[in-house]
Structures are given as C-alpha cells and as structure tokens.
Design a protein that fits this description.
The chain has 468 residues and is α/β, with parallel strands linked by helices. Helix content is 31%, strand content 23%. It has a seven-stranded mixed β-sheet, sandwiched between helices. Strands 19-20-24-21-22-23 form a six-stranded mixed β-sheet, with helices on both faces. Strands 16-17-18 form a three-stranded antiparallel β-sheet, with helices on one face.
C-alpha cells in the first residue's frame, strides 16, 4: 500500500493514508515522499473528504472504525489491486513475479535488468531494491498535457496538474502476491494484474489465515494463468511439482522452464555459494553472472529474471552484466552492522523453505564460522503452528537457534524444537541472550517478516556496549 501511495502521488493525486504499526523501510519511504501517514484508524482521518478511498488487505475488516465510516458515508472505495489495474497497469507491458518465495528479490532483479538495458521500467515491489532506493515508481512516462480520457483519473488530479500517459508497451514489473485482495474481494490480488510475462517461482502452502489448504492456493494460481495472453510467456520453475500440477489444469501460453535438469534455463559452472555461474538456455551458454548475492535459491531467481527480461527484449548477456551491479534488497540477507567481529544480518524469511535456503546460502559463504539464527515466527501461518514440525529441520544448518515466543503464538516452540533452540519470551531477554553468546567471527542471522520490536538495533547496541 505504501508503494501504491507513491505511484498515486507520482501520477498527480494528493495522497494521505492510515495504518498501524508501520516500520522501516516503508515508513521512512513515505516520510521522504512527504505522504501524510496517520497512525491508527479513525473516522476523523477521512476529513477532508477524499475523492477515493483505496482499501488494503492487511488487517482491514468490518468493525474497523475508519472502514465503517467509509461505508456509512457512502465514500467511493476500491481495493489497491483494482486501483493499480485501472490507473497504472492497463496501458503497460506487465511482468509479474508470483510464488511463495523469492518474489521481492526476483522482481527487483528484473526491474534492474530492464533499467540497465535502458527500458525505464515502472515497478511495484514489496521491498526496497538497493539499486533504486524506493519500492515503486511509474517509469516509462511521457508528458503529453492530456489526461487519459477513459481512466476517470482526471477528476482526481491536483488543480493545474499535468496529465500523463504511458509510452507504447512501457514495461511495469510487479510483485504478484497471492494474498487476497481486500475484505470485499477474496480473490488473490494478482488476478487483477493481467501480465504479459509471468514468472512462477514456486508454490507451497502458506497464508493459513485465508487458504484452508494447498489446493485453494493452486486454484488461485490457475486463475492467474488464465489471464496470461497466448502471445505472452510463462517462466515456470521446472523443479516445483505444485507448479507442474497447476499448469496441467490448463495453460494457453508458451512456457519456458527454469532450473530444469535438461532443457530450458539452467545454471552451469556455479560457485558453491552461488556467487558466480554461467547462464544456459537449451544447452547454449548466454552469459556469466558474477555478483554480490549468494544462495542456490538466488541462482534460480536469476534464471527466471533473465528469461522474463529476454521476453521483453533484453539480451541474456546484457541481463547477466546488469546483475554484476545488482545491490540486492533490503531485509534480504541484509548486513545491518558489524560490532567486535560479529556480523548481524536481517532477513525476511518466514517460511521453513525460505529459512533453509537462506541459511544454506550463508553457510556456503561463511564456511565453518558459527551462525546464530534468531527467529520470530510472525506470519499468520507461523503463528498458527502450521509449520511447527518443519521449522526445526529448516534451522539445522545453524550452530545455535534462538526463538522469540510472542504472546500471539498458538504453539510452544520450546516443545517443537526441544534441545535445539533457546526460547525466550521477551525481546530484551532475547537481545541479552544472543549478545552474551556471540563471539568475534560469528554471524547472527535475524529472521522475521515483521518489525521484531527493533531487535537488530537493540542487538547491535548491546554488542557495542556489553553488560559488565
């Protein structure tokens, strides 16, 4: 929603918004853009009366005081995904990145490849790519002095605002999330996006708060596949059985597999940590990637991004060269600081598969150095205990594991990870425990998809000023 706010402002709208518990990097991005953010929800936030209210899908449900005021007051409202479809995506070559894991990183790679090739892509990404420093931009815009007549947007432009239109088939990269659209539209957000190029990274069970089982998620992914035109392209993970099952249900678009054993997009001559490899397509070498990122999962992400970029006209050799300058994404194995020889990382991993692949990549990079894994099971699926039995195996590559047991957890991590993890009930106690254990040369990997109570800053401070 912060990215949507940024796009709306860039398009000439006057924007303000309400949210609760906003944390960096999105809160700082909104502040830098001068977008007014009201903390909490209240009917008073709708004064002065807006022309449109764009409603997100996280925590907004009947009973929310601001939502009730929208309904009682007869306000014009729509979902964030629908607003994007109407105002941004309908004139663009949409390149969508879908999957349980890797959406943010792969979308960031793809946007950077297109930028490096001079295509000036627009993008909306659920993180902040290091090469751009922002999570969203319009890109590919031409000032024409005329508003787009059929969009209905003209009445919302600021007085005297210049209308804008998109160039022909200007690319727009979007992170295509399978979470539902809003409280009044239970379809996945990505069915609104109508991509011409679609990446299907992987498909596992997640979002237990809205999906009863894997079959329900596969149904939504198949709805997405139904929206891709026959002239488009689907770039699909050849090693994912759930994606294969979904495609078998019906596919009307050309498919290029990646991470395949034989045909399609492959990586060869790869370094153990994934920091260098050759990109292959149908047995032919098309480019060499040597970059800052690590991990086998990121090698697969690269193959998908290069395949999608080629569909939009970028030669694989150019794409490989672009990735040598790729700066990664905030909160994706991001180094937050180093104190006394202890390196502290921040990672968004919140699913056992993502946790395992992130740990594997770090292990390949640091060798025999100790890794202390600190985890907050914060997603709805994690809090419900859906992954309780697979969490411990996913953390096996760590030398020590620390888990925060928040009051919202519906299961006991101490029992699930008996003998493997130190389980702590407060952020401050967790900081003290890790700070006391950490030694020079250690790597502390902090994993959470929330704010984690400012844990990283508190840990770095404790390492800087250890208790006597």
């Amino acid at each position: 929603m912060g990215g949507i706010a940024a796009l709306a402002q860039a398009q000439g709208f006057r924007v303000r918004g309400s949210d609760a518990n906003v944390y960096p990097p999105m809160s700082t991005q909104l502040e830098a853009l001068g977008i007014e953010l009201m903390d909490g929800y209240a009917a008073a936030n709708l004064n002065p009366r807006p022309d449109e209210v764009v409603i997100g899908n996280a925590g907004i449900a009947r009973g929310n005081p601001e939502l009730e005021a929208v309904l009682d007051g007869g306000f014009d409202y729509l979902s964030g995904a629908e607003w994007l479809a109407r105002n941004i995506l309908r004139d663009r070559w949409v390149l969508a990145v879908a999957g349980t894991h890797g959406k943010t990183t792969t979308a960031s790679m793809l946007a950077w490849i297109l930028e490096y090739a001079g295509l000036e892509p627009g993008f909306l990404i659920g993180g902040v790519p290091g090469n751009f420093g922002i999570s969203a931009r319009l890109g590919g815009i031409q000032s024409t002095g005329e508003t787009r007549p059929s969009s209905g947007a003209a009445r919302h432009l600021l007085p005297g605002g210049e209308g804008k239109s998109f160039g022909p088939a200007a690319p727009f990269v979007i992170e295509a999330d399978e979470y539902d659209t809003s409280y009044f539209d239970r379809r996945s957000k990505f069915v609104h996006y109508r991509p011409k190029t679609l990446i299907l990274n992987n498909l596992e069970y997640d979002h237990a708060d809205i999906f009863p089982d894997l079959a329900a998620i596969e149904k939504q992914f198949h709805q997405l596949i139904r929206t891709v035109p026959g002239t488009g392209l689907i770039v699909a993970n050849a090693g994912d059985a759930n994606i294969a099952d979904t495609l078998v249900k019906g596919c009307w678009t050309r498919v290029e597999p990646f991470a395949a054993e034989r045909d399609g997009w492959q990586a060869a001559e790869a370094a153990a940590d994934g920091s260098a490899f050759t990109v292959m397509f149908d047995g032919a070498a098309l480019g060499r990637v040597e970059w800052k990122l690590i991990g086998r999962h990121n090698v697969a992400n690269v193959l998908a991004a290069i395949a999608a970029a080629r569909h939009a006209g970028v030669a694989p050799a150019t794409a490989a060269a672009a990735l040598s300058a790729f700066e990664g994404v905030k909160r994706r194995l991001e180094v937050r600081g180093e104190v006394g020889g202890v390196t502290v990382y921040d990672d968004f991993a919140h699913h056992p598969t993502a946790i395992a692949t992130t740990l594997d990549g770090l292990r390949q990079r640091v060798g025999d150095a100790r890794i202390l894994a600190v985890i907050e099971p914060a997603s709805a699926t994690m809090r419900a205990g859906i992954h309780r039995d697979t969490l411990a195996p996913a953390l096996a590559a760590a030398d020590a594991v620390y888990c925060y047991r928040s009051p919202t957890l519906k299961w006991d991590p101490a029992a699930a990870m008996a003998g493997q993890a130190t389980v702590v009930d407060s952020i401050d106690a967790l900081v003290a425990a890790v700070a006391a254990e950490a030694q020079p040369g250690d790597h502390v990997l902090v994993m959470s998809n929330g704010g984690f109570g400012g844990y990283h800053e508190k840990l770095l401070e404790a390492l800087q000023h250890p208790s006597p």
